[in-house]
Amino acid sequence: xxxxxxxxxxxxxxxxxxxxxxxxxxxxxxxxxxxxxxxxxxxxxxxxxxxxxxxxxxxxxxxxxxxxxxxxxxxxxxxxxxxxxxxxxxxxxxxxxxxxxxxxxxxxxxxxxxxxxxxxxxxxxxxxxxxxxxxxxxxxxxxxxxxxxxxxxxxxxxxxxxxxxxxxxxxxxxxxxxxxxxxxxxxxxxxxxxxxxxxxxxxxxxxxxxxxxxxxxxxxxxxxxxxxxxxx
Length: 232
What we know:
The protein is mainly β. The chain is built from no helices and 13 strands. A twelve-stranded antiparallel beta barrel has the order 1-2-3-5-6-7-8-9-10-11-12-13. Strand 10 (168-178) and strand 11 (185-197) form a beta hairpin. The radius of gyration is 18 Å and the shape is globular.
């Protein structure tokens, strides 16, 4: 089998789907700051290969906000995200490998402060072009709703990946979102992934905001593992 392929640490979702009957867990911790406060978080993504070209997904994110003069520290579960990724076609010359990601955040599966939100659906197309044995391009385009506003957020990502060795991978990335009722968010980040073996990978990344609405700075670390759940 090919080495484990993950959707972290960059924001660009891979077009690769999990092999049938395999379970992959991607877990990480992150921190970000802006002019007003700092936020710590943890994220766990479960990906299960239901069919050869279809995976099921469940993601749980916790947000920790430190105490301030006016409020105590809080740890809150954000709406759990349930979805599926479907492989559409393989790469051929300049036609990219492509998959479709469909998901939705469920406010009733969240902390109390999120329960008055509506569902948070999203659609994203994931693309990848292999330029050489060492360089690839990954890029996404999609639309998401935040559960508060009726107008959608149009999202984009572009990641330039580089195989630095058989076990070490690096990337540079631009990503962001645009909404007609909100300030645009544009961001830059970079990171490294290291294969411990074909089924386990470590990662670290850091980024900065390029516009006023984006976080000033972010840092993330994580680990991803996969294993087969049954024969066949």
